[in-house]
Write a structure and sequence with these properties.
The chain is mainly α and about 180 residues long. It has ten helices and no strands.
Amino acid sequence: MKKLLKRYRVFLIVLVAMIILTIVNQQLGIKALLITGNSVKEMLLVIPPIFLLLGLLDVWVPRETMIKYMGEGSGHKGVLLAIFIGSAAAGPLYGAFPVAAVFMKKGVKFMNILIFIGAWSTTKIPMFLFEMAALGNKFAISRLLIDIPGIIILAFILSKMVSKKEVEALYENAKSIE
């Protein structure tokens, strides 16, 4: 029981805070509950397809293939593939982390995982097309030309800053996830 309470303590704290908020200000509490409900509904619509695709990736793509194209010796090929996969991805950023965990299980280089997460968050193709239509080609292309090198530079710096021991712990943790 203690372990269960510890695991869900943040959820329980937020739940208690929402109940107190509803008691203090009923209108605001109900609004917060509706927003929370909409967020949960959105997650329930996004997460299952992501996990389905992850299962297929895990089964269909051999570890050796992932290592060849995105592993330690992949070079520019791995960087470009990480940017492409991240940019072509659909869904909110929290969907990138299960994908990153599968990439870790498959032996993808840490820097390429960071690039993938950066690309998922900032260079999505639908967002780029929307920016071209709403803000103009010059803005959209300029932002993309700044973001891509920025993602690569940040991923390189972060991969050098994080100790080898911490990276190994992340990979071990990813392997234990089923």
